[in-house]
Amino acid sequence: MAGPLGKLAFTLPFGDARTSVELAKRAEQDWGYEAIWMAETAGPDSFTLAGAILQATRTLTLGTAIVPVYNRTPAVLAMSAGTLGQLAPGRFRLGLGSSSHAIIGDWNGVPFEVPFEAPLSTVRDSVAIIRQALAGEKTSYDGKRLRSKGLRLGCVPPEPVPIYLAGLREKMLNLAGEIGEGLIINFQPVEAMAQILSAYQAGAAAAGRDATGDEVVSRFQFAVTDDVPAARNIVRAGFGGYLAQPVYNKFIAWCGFEEEARAIREGFARRDRQAVGEAIHDELIDRIVILGNEDVCREKLAGFVAAGVTTPVLAPLAARKEDAVRMLEAFAPARSG
Q: Residue 110 has what pLDDT?
């Protein structure tokens, strides 16, 4: 049951694949977490690891937050989601998004002009094809960006697989509300929650549905620490390039950090790490990341839940497994139950 901190979840992978499965088992058996949300960058792929975790656990739900719609076709995404839906009926959530220029363009070699000229259409088309396939229908779809004809999925799950969408700014948030069943967000200050949820709910209303009861999943980089300045420096070192990516750079500007976004973008283009670090100042970090002692972290998380986050996803800022375990144990739902 959700309390002042919502339906607490945490993010995987952490470390290698075996460590991640071990943490998932402890999360369910010892710590009382009800959900895990999978990140995907350059480590274990979400679907392979999700299959291992779902077989190693019995009750927790598991979602992807997120897998991109550009480096897998809708048919492959439907096959993966259908497989996991069969392995663990009712326990899997498919979280999709457009990802970033670095991951899609640089790492996966998809030209920038192909994916990011039409992210809205690509997400819309992907969801439509995946839904047809997961329903057991023979696909027949011809969209602005994607098409599929004649696919009949051989692994239709016995229960529906909900599709959640990641959104940053207004248009994608509108689309997420229109065609999604839940929302995934990241790196927002609490002051931006009202405009985020307003855009999401407006999209749902335009489609004739009420989204006020939808799950709102938000990943939070966090550290339970008495050395906040050192933790801030970890954020600066680890997320400068992240916040320089066009999608996130425009997002933090949309959230009210216009000057900071410009300085990060320009400093990153010059390869001036010092300028990027200076632009990611203490106030910016403290508004988008959860840092401090346990009481401070709980207070900050509770503020986000009060503003509309239903599922805070804890992502420990930890280099060692022992430190991550300490943080996750501190917030274990079983501890306060």
A: 78
